[in-house]
Automatic annotation (TrEMBL):
<dbReference type="GO" id="GO:0003677">
    <property type="term" value="F:DNA binding"/>
</dbReference>
<dbReference type="GO" id="GO:0005634">
    <property type="term" value="C:nucleus"/>
</dbReference>
<keyword id="KW-0808">Transferase</keyword>
<dbReference type="GO" id="GO:0044027">
    <property type="term" value="P:negative regulation of gene expression via chromosomal CpG island methylation"/>
</dbReference>
<keyword id="KW-0539">Nucleus</keyword>
<dbReference type="GO" id="GO:0003886">
    <property type="term" value="F:DNA (cytosine-5-)-methyltransferase activity"/>
</dbReference>
<dbReference type="InterPro" id="IPR050390">
    <property type="entry name" value="C5-Methyltransferase"/>
</dbReference>
<keyword id="KW-0489">Methyltransferase</keyword>
<keyword id="KW-0677">Repeat</keyword>
<dbReference type="InterPro" id="IPR029063">
    <property type="entry name" value="SAM-dependent_MTases_sf"/>
</dbReference>
<keyword id="KW-0238">DNA-binding</keyword>
<dbReference type="InterPro" id="IPR001525">
    <property type="entry name" value="C5_MeTfrase"/>
</dbReference>
<dbReference type="InterPro" id="IPR031303">
    <property type="entry name" value="C5_meth_CS"/>
</dbReference>
<dbReference type="GO" id="GO:0032259">
    <property type="term" value="P:methylation"/>
</dbReference>
<protein>
    <recommendedName>
        <fullName>DNA (cytosine-5-)-methyltransferase</fullName>
        <ecNumber>2.1.1.37</ecNumber>
    </recommendedName>
</protein>
<keyword id="KW-0949">S-adenosyl-L-methionine</keyword>
<dbReference type="Pfam" id="PF00145">
    <property type="entry name" value="DNA_methylase"/>
</dbReference>
Length: 134
């Protein structure tokens, strides 16, 4: 209970967190922390941004095509709720109106949004091209 196993050891944490050698058999079975986070962090800037939450007062650093918490491309967790951001929230971050419809499954929709040129940017570029031609 409360993070301790019946033998008194902490549950859900790799044994190397308390200075003991890692047990490869425990890799993904009895830990809450994915094995790659503590064991490969030195090679990857300690996985900065991994499992990161968005900030209410901040912005999306990038809109990703695959909102996977283990992804290296950006923060995808909701600022308060225990979930990744929704398709609609990602669309809003790109400037799509709420009336815009995306088609396909959830992954297809995230891919469409992540690969899109934000509509406000497309409009601004179009207006600048129009100014040059007129």
């Amino acid at each position: 209970r409360n993070g301790k196993a019946s033998n008194g050891q902490r549950r859900g944490v790799c044994s190397c967190a308390s200075g003991r050698p890692c047990d490869p058999l425990d890799r993904q079975f009895n830990t809450l922390v994915p094995w790659c986070l503590p064991h490969t962090g030195n090679r990857h800037n300690h996985w900065a941004g991994l499992y990161g939450r968005l900030d209410w007062d901040g912005f999306f650093s990038t809109t990703v095509t695959n909102p996977e918490p283990m992804g290296k491309q950006g923060r995808v967790l909701h600022p308060e709720q225990h979930r990744v951001v929704s398709v609609r929230e990602c669309a809003r971050s790109q400037g799509f109106p709420d009336t815009y419809r995306f088609f396909g499954n959830i992954m297809d929709k995230h891919r469409q949004i992540g690969n899109a040129v934000p509509p406000p940017m497309g409009r601004a570029i179009g207006l600048e091209i129009k100014k040059c031609l007129v």
